[in-house]
From TrEMBL:
Name of the protein in its database record: Mycothione reductase
Organism: Rothia amarae
Cystine crosslinks: C42-C47
Enzyme class: oxidoreductase
Cofactor: FAD
Gene Ontology BP annotations: 2-oxoglutarate metabolic process
Residue stretches making up the Pyridine nucleotide-disulphide oxidoreductase dimerisation domain: 348-461
Residue positions binding FAD: K51, D312
Manner of cofactor binding, per the entry note: Binds 1 FAD per subunit.
Length: 469
């Protein structure tokens, strides 16, 4: 007798993967496997708790920066422990509730352990259970990647997985990296009162972002915390008092910084290795699992029957809104093999919840210029300062800018990039226009813009584009 447990569907990963299970699966046998915390990265270690720290950090930062408005304020106390407990009371309850609910369903079996592939449709869990699925969804996410330098296992070293659960707000924090996670945590710790050094290996922060936006962010970040560029992490040593000494190479010399906490934010890697995915499926250069446009996993360049992947493990974007959209596509494709869908990833936006906020969609100015040269059209670019619209006057804003890029001949929007107050929200009408094919002037003149809301910065940017029609 075979000791393999058979399922109609096996899902690996309880982040986005958990949302696959809908009423279509009511009469069928489903397994969901997760060796980590139920609910995945976004809920437990990512988007959601980070923003719960970002919000108070932003309020505190703004409170101490309104002297220009004639109001002097100071933050006298930050209760990190109660903030942490409030945040994780909510999150842990959602995670536990989600797990209990799945366990309560007759058709679903939850395996709370890691698993690896032993065949294209077969898995073995860490405790040796063997599972076979007619269909499989790989939604196993990504993990923080640590530079292998001496002392990386020092107790003061954290990643985004652990840093939000520490007991005390550290006095001194060194953030290593120049991406999303580094930018958000530098703001969190700075806003809540730690002394922050952010050290990045290269000159470039937030690579792949529009240069003008990055330069504005760098200028503003350097006013708030100690920003060190071209600092390559060399080692982490112990001081006698238990604190860490972080050693960087800079300009051919060694530079040491003493700190209470080191946050490593040097990128994330798809979890393909622990799945033994390379033995059965094609991998991309990034280490992610290769899929076709219907999210079918490839092996030797061909789709493997009934095996799909979504989210960080296979996506071009490590973003939850992308993982969610891919989940909806895979949910459909699992049960409609004759009418497979694609995920529309033409205009994927992103926001960095640092201070000031940053938001982006579409091509950067450099990318748009390259495309224009290659395809023989001209572009129009307009940069509108927040400080030049009425609400920006109210704010006495000297930071925010909204850049829009369009084709001169058709008015088609190619990209939009913002830095400044609530950029993550201000960008949404531009994402909408691009997604639904509204031209710049149609969008500007085809609707009312509430006066004198900050959204007038978007309206004015669009109107300022010098277009042929
Ligand atoms: C600090 C931080 C902040 C972020 N903030 C944002 C944000 O503001 N906005 C945004 O859009 N995105 C944000 N992201 C990215 C976002 O969290 C991810 O893109 C998203 O959570 C990916 O979802 P997923 O379903 O692909 O994977 P996950 O949610 O990571 O789920 C994968 C699950 O698979 C499990 N697993 C892995 N390997 C195995 C195995 N072999 N066997 C069994 N189980 C396994 C893991 O334990 C995990 O629970 C952030 C990420 C981080 C780290
Ligand atoms: N608001 C959001 O949407 C949000 C927030 C956080 C994370 N995320 C997602 O999570 C992903 C991972 O974030 P991240 O910030 O870790 O990665 P990232 O790829 O954005 O940035 C990694 C940074 O680390 C630097 N780096 C790499 N190796 C290094 C080394 N050895 N020494 C020093 N620096 C080194 C890189 O130059 C880069 O600046 C992002 O791609 C993003 O999609 C999204």
């Amino acid at each position: 007798m075979s000791n393999i447990q058979e399922f109609d569907l096996i899902i690996i990963g309880s982040g986005s993967g958990n949302s696959i299970i809908n009423e279509e699966w009511d009469g069928k046998k489903v397994a969901i496997i997760d060796g980590g915390t139920f609910g995945g990265t976004c809920l437990n270690f990512g988007c959601i708790p980070t923003k719960q720290y970002v919000y108070p950090a932003t309020v505190a930062t703004e409170a101490t920066h309104i002297g220009r408005l004639g109001v002097e304020a100071e933050v006298t106390h930050v209760d990190w422990k109660s903030m942490r407990d409030r945040i994780f009371k909510r999150i842990d309850a959602i995670s536990h509730g989600g797990l209990d609910y799945r366990k309560s369903l007759d058709n679903v079996t939850v395996f709370e352990e890691y698993a690896k592939f032993t065949g294209t449709h077969e898995l073995e869990t860490a405790s040796g259970k063997k599972l076979r699925g007619k269909q499989i969804v790989i939604a196993a996410g990504s993990h923080n990647q640590l530079p292998q330098v001496p002392g990386i296992d020092h107790p003061a070293v954290h990643t985004s997985d652990t840093v939000m659960r520490i007991d005390e707000l550290p006095q001194r924090v060194v953030v290593v990296g120049g991406g999303f996670i580094a930018a958000e945590f530098a703001h969190v710790f700075n806003g809540l009162g730690s002394t922050v050094v952010q050290a990045n290996r290269s000159e470039t922060l937030l690579r792949s972002y529009d240069q003008e936006i990055v330069e504005r962010f760098k200028r503003e970040a350097a006013k708030q915390w100690d920003l060190r560029l071209n600092y390559a992490l060399a080692s982490i040593e112990s001081n006698d008092d238990g604190s860490a000494r972080v050693v960087f190479e800079h300009d051919g010399k060694k530079v040491s910084i003493d700190t209470d906490l080191v946050l490593i934010a040097t990128g994330r890697t798809p979890n393909s290795e622990s799945l033994n995915a390379a033995s059965f499926f094609d991998l991309r250069d990034s280490g992610g699992i290769e899929v076709d446009r219907f999210h079918r996993v490839l092996s030797g360049g061909k789709p493997v029957d009934g095996v799909f992947a979504l989210g960080d493990i296979s996506s071009n974007y490590l973003l939850k809104h992308v993982a969610n959209a891919e989940t909806r596509t895979v949910q459909h494709n699992l049960v409609h093999p004759d009418s497979l869908r694609e995920t529309d990833e033409r205009f994927v936006p992103a926001a960095v919840f640092t201070y000031p906020q940053i938001a982006t969609v579409g091509l950067t100015e450099d990318e748009a210029r390259t495309k224009a040269t290659e395809e023989g059209f001209e572009i129009a670019v307009k940069v509108q300062n927040f400080g030049d619209v009425a609400y920006g006057w109210a704010m006495e804003d000297q930071v925010g800018l909204c850049k829009v890029i369009a084709r001169k001949d058709t008015g088609e929007l190619l990209g939009a990039h913002l830095v400044g107050e609530e950029s993550s929200m201000l960008i949404q009408p531009l994402i909408q226009a691009m997604s639904f094919g509204l031209t710049a002037h149609e969008m500007a003149r085809g609707q009312f813009w509430i006066h004198p809301a900050l959204t007038e910065v978007v309206e004015n940017a669009l109107l300022g584009l010098e277009l042929e029609k």
